[in-house]
Amino acid sequence: MSPDSKKPLLVLFVCTANKLRSPTAEDVFKDYPGIQAVSAGTDASAPRPLTKELVASADWIFAMETHHRERIRKKYKQRPPDNRIITLHIPDEYERGDPELVALLKEKVEPRIQDSAVQ
């Protein structure tokens, strides 16, 4: 839960097209207690494009690659602090739901959010 309210922690996952990596992350974390997982893409034609409202409302942002993080930092003034915008270093080489991708996401994201989410 976010520290200032009883609402779930909003965790935003970002990739380019919002078709493979970030939707997989949303699928993995959507049922975690105290977490509201959402995904978006930096590409304007993504099924869910990244918006200033999404960025501003996020408690944590997990960017799949460095260029996603830098775009968020440069384009959006209202955003979580830099220490809550994390680059996962997951390249665009996985299919949606790939077990290896799921394992990487759990390994890299769980330690960051488990202490923040109230169960």
What is this entry, summarized?
With 119 residues, the chain is of the alpha/beta class. It is built from 4 helices and 4 strands; from the N terminus they run βαβαβαβα. The protein has a single domain, classed as Rossmann fold (3-Layer(aba) Sandwich).
> What class, by secondary structure content?
alpha/beta
By CATH reckoning, the class would read Alpha Beta
Shape: globular
Spatial sequence of strands, sheet with the most strands:
2-1-3-4
End-to-end Cα distance, whole Å, is 8 Å
CATH architecture: 3-Layer(aba) Sandwich
Order of helices and strands: EHEHEHEH
CATH superfamily: Response regulator
Residue share in β-strands: 15-25%
Tell how many strands the DSSP assignment holds: 4
Helix content: 25-40%
Protein name: Phosphotyrosine protein phosphatase
Domain Phosphotyrosine protein phosphatase I: 9-119
Organism: Sedimentitalea arenosa
InterPro entries: Ptyr_pPase, Ptyr_pPase_sf, UCP029416_PTP
Description of the molecule:
- This protein is α/β, with parallel strands linked by helices and 119 residues long.
- It has a single domain (10-113), classed as Response regulator (Rossmann fold), CATH 3.40.50.2300.
- Helices cover 34% and strands 18% of the residues.
- A 4-stranded parallel sheet has the order 2-1-3-4.
- The termini are close together.
Structure characteristics:
about 120 residues; alpha/beta; Rossmann fold; 4-stranded parallel beta sheet; Ptyr_pPase; Ptyr_pPase_sf; Phosphotyrosine protein phosphatase
